[in-house]
Design a protein that fits this description.
The chain is α/β, with parallel strands linked by helices and 194 residues long. The chain has a single domain, classed as Alpha-Beta Complex (DHBP synthase), CATH 3.90.870. The protein is 27% helix and 24% strand. It has a ten-stranded mixed sheet.
Protein backbone atom coordinates (compact mmCIF):
# COMPACT_ATOMS: atom_id res chain seq x y z
CA UNK A 1 0.00 0.00 0.00
CA UNK A 2 1.44 3.36 -1.09
CA UNK A 3 1.56 5.94 1.74
CA UNK A 4 0.41 9.37 0.54
CA UNK A 5 -0.04 12.66 2.38
CA UNK A 6 -2.42 14.62 0.13
CA UNK A 7 -3.40 15.61 -3.39
CA UNK A 8 -0.16 17.57 -3.78
CA UNK A 9 2.06 14.61 -2.81
CA UNK A 10 4.42 13.95 -5.78
CA UNK A 11 4.14 10.22 -5.05
CA UNK A 12 0.42 10.43 -5.90
CA UNK A 13 1.21 11.62 -9.44
CA UNK A 14 3.78 8.84 -9.76
CA UNK A 15 1.35 6.20 -8.45
CA UNK A 16 -1.44 7.23 -10.83
CA UNK A 17 0.89 7.45 -13.84
CA UNK A 18 2.17 3.96 -12.97
CA UNK A 19 -1.38 2.60 -13.39
CA UNK A 20 -2.30 2.36 -9.73
CA UNK A 21 -5.92 2.66 -8.59
CA UNK A 22 -6.84 4.40 -5.35
CA UNK A 23 -9.35 6.37 -3.33
CA UNK A 24 -9.07 10.14 -3.12
CA UNK A 25 -11.41 13.07 -3.05
CA UNK A 26 -12.78 14.58 -6.19
CA UNK A 27 -14.19 18.09 -6.29
CA UNK A 28 -17.36 16.67 -4.74
CA UNK A 29 -16.98 13.34 -2.87
CA UNK A 30 -14.47 10.50 -2.41
CA UNK A 31 -13.96 8.38 -5.49
CA UNK A 32 -12.02 5.38 -6.70
CA UNK A 33 -9.74 6.81 -9.40
CA UNK A 34 -7.32 5.84 -12.15
CA UNK A 35 -5.74 7.56 -15.14
CA UNK A 36 -8.43 7.58 -17.84
CA UNK A 37 -5.96 6.98 -20.69
CA UNK A 38 -4.66 3.82 -19.00
CA UNK A 39 -6.94 1.04 -20.24
CA UNK A 40 -5.66 -1.54 -17.76
CA UNK A 41 -6.11 0.78 -14.76
CA UNK A 42 -9.60 1.85 -15.90
CA UNK A 43 -10.62 -1.79 -16.38
CA UNK A 44 -9.35 -2.62 -12.90
CA UNK A 45 -11.38 0.27 -11.44
CA UNK A 46 -14.54 -1.02 -13.13
CA UNK A 47 -13.80 -4.51 -11.83
CA UNK A 48 -13.46 -3.21 -8.26
CA UNK A 49 -16.74 -1.35 -8.57
CA UNK A 50 -18.48 -4.33 -10.18
CA UNK A 51 -19.67 -1.95 -12.91
CA UNK A 52 -21.04 -3.84 -15.89
CA UNK A 53 -21.90 -1.44 -18.70
CA UNK A 54 -22.08 1.50 -16.30
CA UNK A 55 -19.21 3.88 -17.06
CA UNK A 56 -17.61 6.10 -14.45
CA UNK A 57 -17.04 9.84 -14.76
CA UNK A 58 -13.97 11.36 -16.36
CA UNK A 59 -12.70 14.45 -14.54
CA UNK A 60 -10.24 16.85 -16.12
CA UNK A 61 -8.50 20.17 -15.54
CA UNK A 62 -9.62 21.49 -18.94
CA UNK A 63 -11.60 20.72 -22.07
CA UNK A 64 -8.27 20.23 -23.84
CA UNK A 65 -7.53 17.22 -21.60
CA UNK A 66 -10.84 15.65 -22.60
CA UNK A 67 -10.07 16.23 -26.28
CA UNK A 68 -6.60 14.68 -25.81
CA UNK A 69 -8.35 11.63 -24.38
CA UNK A 70 -10.34 11.27 -27.62
CA UNK A 71 -13.62 13.11 -27.04
CA UNK A 72 -14.92 15.42 -29.78
CA UNK A 73 -14.42 19.13 -29.07
CA UNK A 74 -17.78 20.00 -30.67
CA UNK A 75 -19.68 18.16 -27.92
CA UNK A 76 -17.59 19.78 -25.22
CA UNK A 77 -17.89 23.31 -26.65
CA UNK A 78 -21.67 22.97 -26.43
CA UNK A 79 -21.48 22.58 -22.65
CA UNK A 80 -18.41 24.61 -21.73
CA UNK A 81 -20.56 27.31 -20.08
CA UNK A 82 -21.08 24.89 -17.17
CA UNK A 83 -17.36 24.46 -16.49
CA UNK A 84 -15.36 24.51 -14.41
CA UNK A 85 -17.89 23.34 -11.86
CA UNK A 86 -19.74 20.48 -10.22
CA UNK A 87 -21.82 19.72 -13.30
CA UNK A 88 -21.18 16.44 -15.04
CA UNK A 89 -22.27 16.26 -18.67
CA UNK A 90 -22.99 13.04 -20.56
CA UNK A 91 -21.52 13.32 -24.06
CA UNK A 92 -21.34 10.87 -26.98
CA UNK A 93 -17.97 9.16 -27.37
CA UNK A 94 -18.09 8.44 -31.14
CA UNK A 95 -14.73 6.71 -30.69
CA UNK A 96 -14.33 2.94 -30.51
CA UNK A 97 -10.93 3.45 -28.87
CA UNK A 98 -12.80 4.70 -25.79
CA UNK A 99 -15.01 1.60 -25.46
CA UNK A 100 -12.94 0.50 -22.45
CA UNK A 101 -14.04 3.75 -20.73
CA UNK A 102 -17.64 4.04 -21.92
CA UNK A 103 -18.26 0.31 -21.35
CA UNK A 104 -19.81 0.04 -24.81
CA UNK A 105 -22.72 2.42 -24.14
CA UNK A 106 -21.49 5.10 -26.57
CA UNK A 107 -21.44 7.97 -24.10
CA UNK A 108 -19.38 9.14 -21.17
CA UNK A 109 -19.95 11.44 -18.20
CA UNK A 110 -17.31 14.17 -18.07
CA UNK A 111 -16.54 17.16 -15.84
CA UNK A 112 -13.99 19.96 -15.72
CA UNK A 113 -13.31 20.49 -12.02
CA UNK A 114 -13.52 23.78 -10.13
CA UNK A 115 -10.96 22.91 -7.46
CA UNK A 116 -7.44 24.37 -7.68
CA UNK A 117 -5.69 21.55 -5.80
CA UNK A 118 -7.41 18.82 -7.81
CA UNK A 119 -6.89 20.69 -11.10
CA UNK A 120 -3.15 20.92 -10.32
CA UNK A 121 -3.07 17.13 -9.84
CA UNK A 122 -5.00 16.58 -13.09
CA UNK A 123 -2.59 18.81 -15.01
CA UNK A 124 0.17 16.39 -14.02
CA UNK A 125 -1.69 13.10 -14.45
CA UNK A 126 -4.09 13.85 -17.28
CA UNK A 127 -7.80 13.13 -17.00
CA UNK A 128 -8.87 10.60 -14.35
CA UNK A 129 -11.76 8.16 -14.46
CA UNK A 130 -13.62 8.10 -11.16
CA UNK A 131 -16.55 6.39 -9.54
CA UNK A 132 -17.93 7.00 -6.06
CA UNK A 133 -16.09 5.16 -3.30
CA UNK A 134 -18.63 2.42 -2.62
CA UNK A 135 -19.97 -0.84 -4.01
CA UNK A 136 -23.48 -1.18 -5.49
CA UNK A 137 -26.09 -0.79 -2.77
CA UNK A 138 -23.76 1.01 -0.35
CA UNK A 139 -23.74 4.70 0.54
CA UNK A 140 -20.76 6.58 -0.94
CA UNK A 141 -17.87 6.80 1.53
CA UNK A 142 -17.71 10.10 3.42
CA UNK A 143 -14.41 9.24 5.12
CA UNK A 144 -11.31 7.28 4.23
CA UNK A 145 -12.09 4.89 7.09
CA UNK A 146 -15.43 4.09 5.45
CA UNK A 147 -13.71 3.64 2.05
CA UNK A 148 -11.21 1.26 3.68
CA UNK A 149 -14.12 -0.75 5.07
CA UNK A 150 -15.48 -1.05 1.52
CA UNK A 151 -12.24 -1.73 -0.39
CA UNK A 152 -9.60 -2.81 2.19
CA UNK A 153 -6.47 -3.75 0.21
CA UNK A 154 -8.27 -4.00 -3.17
CA UNK A 155 -6.94 -0.52 -4.05
CA UNK A 156 -3.31 0.60 -4.08
CA UNK A 157 -3.64 3.76 -1.99
CA UNK A 158 -5.92 6.05 0.00
CA UNK A 159 -5.59 9.84 0.27
CA UNK A 160 -7.33 11.18 3.38
CA UNK A 161 -8.97 14.59 2.95
CA UNK A 162 -11.07 14.40 6.11
CA UNK A 163 -14.81 13.94 6.52
CA UNK A 164 -16.67 14.93 3.34
CA UNK A 165 -20.17 14.15 4.64
CA UNK A 166 -21.33 17.73 4.04
CA UNK A 167 -20.62 17.47 0.32
CA UNK A 168 -23.08 16.52 -2.39
CA UNK A 169 -22.31 14.71 -5.63
CA UNK A 170 -22.24 16.63 -8.89
CA UNK A 171 -25.34 17.40 -10.91
CA UNK A 172 -25.49 15.21 -14.02
CA UNK A 173 -27.05 16.52 -17.22
CA UNK A 174 -27.46 15.30 -20.77
CA UNK A 175 -28.11 17.50 -23.80
CA UNK A 176 -30.97 16.06 -25.87
CA UNK A 177 -32.15 17.87 -29.01
CA UNK A 178 -30.74 21.20 -27.76
CA UNK A 179 -32.54 20.82 -24.41
CA UNK A 180 -31.12 19.95 -21.00
CA UNK A 181 -32.22 16.77 -19.27
CA UNK A 182 -31.27 16.54 -15.59
CA UNK A 183 -30.18 12.96 -14.94
CA UNK A 184 -29.22 13.47 -11.28
CA UNK A 185 -29.78 16.49 -9.06
CA UNK A 186 -26.66 17.44 -7.17
CA UNK A 187 -24.81 20.38 -5.75
CA UNK A 188 -25.61 22.74 -8.68
CA UNK A 189 -29.21 23.62 -9.60
CA UNK A 190 -29.91 23.35 -13.33
CA UNK A 191 -33.26 23.98 -14.98
CA UNK A 192 -34.34 21.54 -17.64
CA UNK A 193 -34.96 22.93 -21.12
CA UNK A 194 -32.68 25.94 -20.50
Amino acid sequence: MVKLSGLNDPNLVEALKAGRVGVLRSDTIYGVMAVAANQEAASRLYGLKKRDRKPGTVIAASIDQLVELGLKRRYLKAVEEYWPGAITVIVPTDNSELSYLDQGVGSLAVRVVDDAELAALLQQTGALVTSSANHPGQEPANTIEQAKDYFADEVDFYVDSGDLSGRQPSTIIRIVDDAIEVVRKGVVEVSENE
